[in-house]
Amino acid sequence: MKWTRETLRADLVALFGHHAQEDIVVTEQSHLVADLGIDSLGVMEVIADIEDKFELSIPDEALREVETIADVATAIESKLAAQGRLLG
After folding, report:
1. Distance in angstroms (rounded) separating the CA atoms of residues 18 and 46
2. At how many degrees (to 10) do helices 5-19 and 69-82 cross?
3. Where are the domains of the chain?
4. Average pLDDT per 10 consecutive residues for the chain, totaling 88 residues
5. Which of 26, 32, 47, 62 could form a Cys-Cys staple with 17, CB 3.0–4.6 A?
6. Which fold has domain 3-87?
């Protein structure tokens, strides 16, 4: 499957919304821990969902480099672009 940057980011916001604490507004600028209240186990669950959704593998060390949903989106965009699966 192929994505545009817009559809990828919308999918990520929705996916993180399923894992965030109740009544939290999720945006691309949301910090995974500070804003969404996702603990380390929750982050691993989200990563598993992302890997399934976008059919890719995310190395554990990549988790240390992301703080916001936008950071996650940028990393996924790079992987998908390298695989020819990012449109635009």
Report:
1. 9
2. 130
3. 3-87
4. 96 95 93 88 88 90 84 94 94
5. 26
6. 1.10.1200
The H-or-E segment that residue 28 falls in is none
Helix axes 5-19, 40-54, angle to 10 degrees: 140
6 token code pair: 């817009």
Distance CA 34, CA 81 (A): 29
Q: Tell me the Cα Rg of the chain.
A: 12
Helix (H, G, I), strand (E, B) or coil at 86: strand
Q: What is the pTM of this model?
A: 0.90
Query: How long a stretch of residues is the chain?
Result: 88
Distance CA 20, CA 2 (A): 26
